[in-house]
Amino acid sequence: MQSVTYRKIKNHLMSGLMLACTLAVLIPLGLIFFHILKMGVSSLSLDFFTHVPAPTGEPGGGMANGMLGSAIMIGGASLIGLPIGILGAIYLSEFGGSRVSTVIRFAADVLSGTPSIITGMVAYTLLVVPMKGFSGLAGSVALAMIMIPIVLRTTEEQLKMVPGSLREASLALGVPFWRTSLKVTLRSALSGVLTGVLLAVARIAGETAPLLFTALGNQFWSKNVLQPMAALPLQIFSFAIAPYEDWHRLAWAGALVLVTVMFALSLTARYFGRTRRAG
Amino acid sequence: MGSCCTHETDQAAATGKKSEPAQARKLGGDAVFRYLTTFFAFSILAILALMLYEMAGESLPAIKEFGWKFVSSEEWDAVQGHFGALPYLYGSVVSSVLALLLATPLSIGAALFITEVAPGRLGSLVAPLVELLAAIPSVIYGLWGVLVMAPWLQSTVQPFLIEHFGFLPFFEGAPYGVSMLAAIFILMIMVVPIITSITREVLLAVPQSQKEAAIALGATRWETIRVAILPYGKSGILGAAILGLGRAIGETMAVTMVIGNAPNISLSLLSPAYTMPSVIANEFAETTSKLHASALMEIGLILMVVTLVVNAMARLLIWSVSRSAKGGAA
Prior knowledge:
The structure holds 2 protein chains of 2 kinds. In chain A, 76% of the residues lie in helices and 0% in strands. By secondary structure, chain A is mainly α. Chain A has 2 domains: 4-43; 64-278, MetI-like (MetI-like fold). The longest helix of chain A has 40 residues, at 4-43. The relative contact order of chain A is 0.14. Chain B is mainly alpha-helical. Chain B has a single domain, classed as MetI-like fold. Chain B has 12 helices and 2 strands; from the N terminus they run H-H-H-E-E-H-H-H-H-H-H-H-H-H. Chain B has helices at residues 2-15, 20-66, 69-72, 86-117, 122-133, 138-165, 180-204, 208-216, 221-250, 253-258, 276-283, 290-329; strands at residues 76-77, 82-83. In chain B, strand 1 and strand 2 form a beta hairpin. The chains are: A mainly alpha, B mainly alpha. At the A-B interface, helix 1, helix 3, helix 4, helix 5 and helix 6 of A face helix 1, helix 2, helix 4, helix 5 and helix 6 of B.
């Protein structure tokens, strides 16, 4: 038997070690935030939100086209992904036989575990090659493939939490099943579903790899979804690895904007998630 | 739940006193709704099948041309039309495994601190912070890695390693900054929040009675962790680490930005290297021939299969813990 003092010392030593681990986890992440804030705030200007990137070597310019392109492609991905994700989830929670549902859930898990660059390759062979050109549409499809499994799983979980008595009450009043599903079941789970949707949007807003060979990027204003399209994460990537100090500053500013948008989205999502749990 | 409800509607509709056309419309609506949701649910299966089909179909030319030599040859020459993926496989395996070896102990320590050691509300303060960090996009880690971390490695860490450990094959050569070492560090920073938050969930699933039993026997906090908590959560923690591995193998942007993108197989961690996702990211938009595109597709296919296997393993392990925890409680 070891002495009590030895055991106590060991206990404190180990507690200290765990604290050290926590600090080691948090310090690099704190540093990343520090640099994004420091470099981003000093590089951010009104031009950043209103101008396209300046030609190589010229100072100034912004990432306005990237922000617009990202917004368009996220919108497109949502148009494709949300119906599939939400209606698919209704099938899983309201209709699905257990074996079929398991297979679909497994497929969704495989999809969400697949590296995002693969969805870019698939969208490239399905859309870019037949349409003979890079396009914002292909970018949207690649992003939708990432979005679908996230929306599916979160929505299904939320729908399953709706008590069966609510459904039965609605059906007993003679409301058809489809109206019950949409107006009662989905509606009572709405804030939770919204949380999942916002988290999925936040996730695809930062995706870069699937856009590399679908949207490709664009130095100019690009509003046509059948043409190559700029995106904020793509611009951050290409400016960060370019050898110009000015471009690095723009990349930092872009990073600050991207992180701010993502955190705003996930905070809103958390807010909705919380009101649901409270209510 | 589902099938019973539809049955009830049918009954309600059959015994209802509504006029004939209204009934038909209602049944029609339900049928349409059912087909519609079924269609969307199965479209997910279709997407996955299409993905596998496209990846396999497009890599067929490379598979036919090179066979097993594809994974054993080092030669990658787009002009001559020779494609061997060994340097990329090597780079992916070394960077993700070493990153995981560094990240796992840190994550377990942090998760234990959050769940067991942290006083009062500190734990519930740190936990959402870690979750938030898992959501930062990889291009931002890459930006920080290439503009802040790599120069720091080049000016401080690598010269130190060369001076004091240069006799080891792992630390020889010149300090480049962008290197295998930079990739390992950035991957470690990226997977730590993921492993930490899953490990935390696993630890929270350990039944209170297990801890109380250890405490009742007079165990200190560390002894409680060692004899009651860790053994119970063992396979779940292993699952968390493997999930981190899956993430690290597929990680594209951050690694591409800091690894240096040179197809070397070198023991030295200071030299630039290349990974499977990075070579796809750099070359796929500008392939020189059908065979080149096909070779990159085959790399993508390997990547997809590897992450699939790794993720399936991880999920089984985590699932086994949460299942047994539920079973224990019941």
